[in-house]
Amino acid sequence: MAARRTATAAAGSGEDTTAVELDELMPWSVRPLRTGRSWVSGPDPAALRARWERLAAAEGTEQERLFRPSRSRTPHTPAAALPGRSTGGSGAGTTTGTGRFAREPGACPDPVRILHGPFDEQWLLPDHRLIDAARPELWRVGDERQLFAVEHGYVPQAAGPALSVTHLLPDGHSPAGRPGRIRPLYRRPDATDPNLAPGLLDVLRTRLGPEVRPQSVLAWIVAAALPAPSGCRVPLPADAEVWAAGVELGRELTRVQLRGARGGERPRLPGGRRPYVRAALPVRPTGIAYDAEAGALVIGDGRISPVEAGAWEFTVSGVRVLELWFERRAAAAVGAVPEGADADGLDAVGARGWTPEWTSELLELISVLTLLDGLRPRQAALRARLERAEVPLISREELRAAGVVPVPASARRPASVLGHQEEGPEGQFALL
Known about the structure:
By secondary structure, the protein is α+β, with helices and mostly antiparallel strands. The chain contains twelve helices and 19 strands. The chain has helices at residues 22-25, 45-57, 60-67, 136-141, 200-208, 214-224, 240-258, 309-312, 321-333, 356-374, 376-387, 396-401; strands at 20-21, 41-42, 112-115, 121-124, 148-151, 163-166, 169-170, 182-184, 186-188, 192-194, 233-234, 276-279, 289-291, 296-299, 302-305, 315-316, 319-320, 421-423, 429-431. A hairpin with a 3-residue loop joins β9 (186-188) and β10 (192-194). α7 runs antiparallel to α11. It is globular, with a radius of gyration of 23 Å.
């Protein structure tokens, strides 16, 4: 039984009568991280280390002020170690404590790379005592084979992708709109137990061929997902040729977003047309603009070109990605503190101007957005094919008849990780 489109998409919502909710395809999801204090993450790992050192050296009420306590965390709150983080080691930056920070902060742990919202790779101090809600279930399944699908905040009429995919730990931050959910591809480490509705692969293989794998389902979702107020929706074709085209496109979109991880190549523009720094960027830049005639980014007296208009105009949830990325680093370069934070608090610690690393990251981000923008016509063509009446879709009714939906409650909960020992608060161990 195949469904055909019976109604047009709701105005501005991307929602239709035949697409299946992503929540029914990848049922286990995790809410965004909640750090509780802005100083535990940022674009500069050296600044994070400096913040740790100042906090660890402070005492009493001064440490309390710098820490910025919340109901979940204070300097006197013990916490379990984050999964995958070593405890009790001997090298600086290799250990994370589980006792009270005020009593025994320990050495500064090595900052870890995270994805702070869409396309913004930053750093995080991986100490559970500093983070209100670190979502340890994500850390538990994150390894060299895991991928995360991250839904973007829904904004009516906004252009841009409905979700992104990353190999890094995502914090799920949304630049606008209500943050979406984080959906790991696998429920257990080592690429075991796919986070797919039970029975879904069987239906897809019957309809589309035996070569359907969890990775190809994720690739299709990346290519075809539609934004909607209640969460992403995904049309599932019953046509093997349409499926293959979408999977190929989704794999290319994923490859670009992974930026060379998982054995891929770093993003490169065709024909050797890559952006270069034509004039050095200032140490403490205050603004960014786009020179459309010259095809250049203008940052103070600095210039980067060539930059395609599509990269500059690339938005997520209605927010321009390059502009937001720059604003965060410009603020860090001058030691600006978030609204409501102390002017002499930890957010202002470690500012040392614009770094060479940021310039390299900016050049790569321009290439990433240029490549993604270049794939938009293929995405538009795929969605147009799915909207035509002659393309059959796998309906929710068919999934219901096959027992795929409704999804069992057990598939929405984290899988147990047997035999994995983790350190709890105050050094107590638990077997998960």
